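Below is how a single chain appears once it has passed through the pipeline. First comes the sequence as given, then the structure the pipeline wrote out for it. We keep one example in the README because the format questions we get most often are answered faster by looking than by reading.
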Amino acid sequence: MHTRLSARFPALLLSALLSTAAQAQTAWPERPITIIVPGAPGGTTDIPTRLVAQKLGALLGQPVIVDNRPGSGGIIGTQALLRAPGDGYTLLVGNTGSHAINYSAYRHLPYRPQDFVPITDMISFPNVLVVNAQSPIRTVADLTGQLRNQPGQLAYSSAGIGQTTHLTAELFRMRTGTEVIHVPYKGSTPATTALLAGETTFMFDNLTQALPHIRAGKLRALAVTSAERLPALPEVPTMAQAGVGDFVVMGWLGVFAAARTPPAVVAKLQDGLARVMRDPEIVARFKEMGGLAGGQPQSAFATLVSSEQKRWGDAIKASNLSLD
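Resulting structure:
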């Protein structure tokens, strides 16, 4: 009997270990989850994330904490995710800048696409070209005229080097043949604040960030970067209607985990997040912000991220832009 028990012991041990691992994944989450936002509090990435975090926490039965790590075009926050254990308890809200643009804009980026697993998209939105409401600039043609009359003297603000608010303005500069100074900030909130304070002349702001200021009469919208006019701003033309063609730019936010995260945990996260994105309150709040709620299947979101990496990579190579 002793011999038979000895022979069976390795198999019993392996079975016990597998059972324990399965129970651990099934029980996930057993403690609070942290979502890293690579932007400033109150900004374009922060506000939607906090709404989603509250709903996700209620759904999973554990607190979901938002941790702001702004700076360096999303690199600081992204690195924070990769330093954390790959157990699904630390997530990242990536965006067009951190997970599409940066791969081509930086020659020495400290992370690679294969370091992450895209879980699902959270919200998508166009940018809106805005000026201070006290500015004499009332149309895109007015802005272009001023830039041409004062080459290299006027400035635009952005949410950071390599963010869509930066590269969309660079695209505008190239399309209009103008010269302008770029002033990057650590997030969309300080960038918008700078425009409100008159420190810069214009900004291609995320619609979710700019809309409250437009409605309050503090910012003037000149054009939107979507293919069609927006229900939230029906009187504002598209860039094409304003005279600048080939100018459709949509930003997005999505949830990422470290690549080593257990597949069962990733699947549970995707399911939970997709349910949150279908919540009528989230759909309505995102619509009020000028955005569209996400919740795509993991494979569809991964395809989107990959296509965005190529799209922005081609644009960056064509403009010979390097952010190192």
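The domain at 33-124+251-319 is CATH 3.40.190.150 (D-Maltodextrin-Binding Protein; domain 2).

See the next section for the split statistics.
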